[in-house]
Give the backbone structure.
Amino acid sequence: MTQHIDDDAVRGPRLYRNNDKLIGLGNTVWQAAHDVGLIGITVDHDSNNRLITGDGHEFMVLCSCSYLGLNRHPAVIQGGIDALTQWRTTGLSLAEVRVRLNLLKRLEEELREQFGGPVLPGVSCSALTAGILPLIASGHLGDNGRPRVMVFDRFSHFSMAYAKPICADETLVLTSPHNDMNYLEDICRKYPRVAYVADGAYSMGGVADVAGLLDLQDRYGLFLYFDDSHALSIHGSRGEGYVRSRIEMNPLTIVVASLAKAFGAAGGIAMLGDEALFDFLYRNAGPVAWSQNMEVAAIGHALGSLAVHRSPELAERQRRLQANIAYFDSQFPTDHAGNGLPIRKITVGEADRALRLSRELYEHGYYCSAVFFPIVARGEAGVRVMMRADIDPPELAAFCKSVKESVASD
């Protein structure tokens, strides 16, 4: 069914203006989380994968995005040490478009080889997004300056939604219901040039409808921009992520991802489907061109992680992660069970119950982040749990038992 689209109502979106009530409600719950000691925790890192507070409380983190445990892998840590030792600087402190270290050039080449095409590194995934999305909106990526209507999935990550006002200076910006291919096709029928902005794997669980989006791209020339940060390294035989392992890259597709999650390093990357885009974005994509450099240690960490990615260890860590996900799903079935992604939510209803559950688990030695409105819908508050490959099965079983006991006693 074709839906009416009111252009004037959606032009020039605001992230904060007219949202005083929303922000006020969210801040009230954040303050409640602070009051019960669930945010602002400072810790030391112990070598046995546990954290220790100043008063000696020891706990395991189950809201870490280091899904493969590579952030504490010896090769990744040593990569940063070796880079600093060899190059004897933290970085050049100038725009990389003018001068960049051969070490960074080496990273670019190894990323290209690993992921099968041009890959642009950046100081962060957010910086890459901030530089690239306005160029898509203005039509300067393959459209000869003819703007594209920008459609953001309702659940697209805040780092992308943050660019809406900038994109709105270039073109019409719309927000789509989540994974609604009918809505998106209506837009494609109405406008000749459209771009869709979405996560590949969403931070609260679930994935993009990649097959449906590729169909629309084939029929309408839809530009696809994915942030696949939560799936990089955990999916694909080369760790290329959920989206990249399911598509052939083309000039109408860009996949960005953070190197600070399962990849275990720091910074971000943009996988490109057009060779010409590499130099164009280096020169013109705002924060990519003139932001701070990737620091030498971060480049070294990334090279160390790539060495792990090229070894049989990647597949073994992916296997262990999938085994842990499957076990958790067997204990706590959710709508996302079986999708092979590590993010789950145990729903308890209202924010106060989510805070109580999170606090009780913390006291038992497990930290899970409480999530509540406006992070999730009203009445859908709970705790978000992130599976990792470096959680031993007995530890995971003990955690699941503790969750069940806490939920039952509430």
Summary: The chain has two domains: 13-67+312-409, 74-309.
